Amino acid sequence: MRWDKITSLIDHCRYYKGEMPDTEDANIRMCAFCEQKWIEFMEDRDNTMLSSLLSDYFEYGLREFNLDDGVPASLKAVLANRYFQYNERIDIPAFKFFYNKYYAK
Fold it and tell me: What value does the CA radius of gyration of the chain take, rounded to a whole number of Å?
């Protein structure tokens, strides 16, 4: 992937700026990890994983969630997936709270 494309993707990230942030906050580290994985997924032209995550995100009723915040739905889908995995359950209200507290700008 061209560097200008990677840079434009990093511009959508809150925490990951080409390297992981130096923080002890596990929530911020998880967000940065998700951003890094999202960039890797976006590099793959035939990414069935990202398509699957986005499909799940929409199926959970999150298509309209914070639609105007400038964060691509595909990145939110990665964040939601990891949040649900780490918490071992799909809890939409809890994810929305987490997102608004730790990720929304």
Answer: 13
DSSP string, 41-70: HHH-TT-HHHHHHHHHHHHTT-TTTTTTSS
7-57 tens-digit pLDDT: 889 999 999 999 999 999 999 999 999 999 999 999 887 789 999 999 999
Distance CA 39, CA 7 (A): 10
Tokens of residue 105, six digits: 């700008």
> How many angstroms separate the Cα of 69 from the Cα of each of 4, 14, 46, 105?
22, 12, 27, 8
pLDDT of 5-18, one tens digit each?
Answer: 788 899 999 999 99
pTM of this structure? 0.92
- Residue 87 CA to its chain's centroid (Å): 16
**20-24: long-range contacts, CB 8 A cutoff, minimum separation 24:** none
Q: Where are the alpha helices (DSSP H) in the chain?
A: 3-10, 26-43, 48-59, 73-87, 92-102
